[in-house]
Amino acid sequence: MANTQRARQLRQRETWAEKLMWRWLRDRRFSSYKFRRQHPVGPYTLDFFCEEAELNIELDGYGHGFVEQRKDDAVRESFLAERGIKTLRFWNGALRRNSRSVRDTIFNELQSRAPKPLPDYTRPIEERGK
After folding, report:
1. Sequence-separated contacts (24+) of 63-70 with Cβ below 8 Å
2. d(C-alpha 122, C-alpha 33), whole Å
């Protein structure tokens, strides 16, 4: 129960980067993949989690640059990897400077882990209707 309460608290104190990412991912807006925010897994709370693709997206602020935090992050990623969950990490600043690259990286990872057919309008004209 403590993990659920912590997740609720984190959802109420979102950073600007988390708000932006959630606008992209919520309500199956991102290629119809379902994401949960501040999702508890074991002793950890994942920023954004897609169960279908077993993909975790973490947004890192300046605190993640410190050596001790990097060690904690590595332990966390190892724990998740043992459960088949892949983690993508992005610096908050990357969302502002390279949002297209971040979205492309997420989309490509989703497609490699749990592919969904792309809508017809996204395919080249010569491939449509085949």
Report:
1. 64/89, 64/91
2. 17
Using CB atoms within 10 Å of the CB of residue 59, give its burial: 0 to 12 exposed, 13 to 18 middle, 19+ buried: buried
Query: Number of helices (H) and strands (E), helices first, in the chain?
Result: 5, 4
Q: Which domains does the chain have, with CATH numbers?
A: 2-127 (3.40.960.10)
Q: Tens of pLDDT along 100-123?
A: 999 999 999 998 998 876 666 666
Q: What is the pLDDT of residues 62-91, one digit of tens each?
A: 655 556 767 888 899 999 999 999 999 998
> Of the candidates 84, 89, 102, which has an alpha carbon nearest to the alpha carbon of residue 41?
84
What amino acid is encoded at 13 in this protein? R
Work out the number of other CB atoms within 10 angstroms of the CB of residue 8: 10
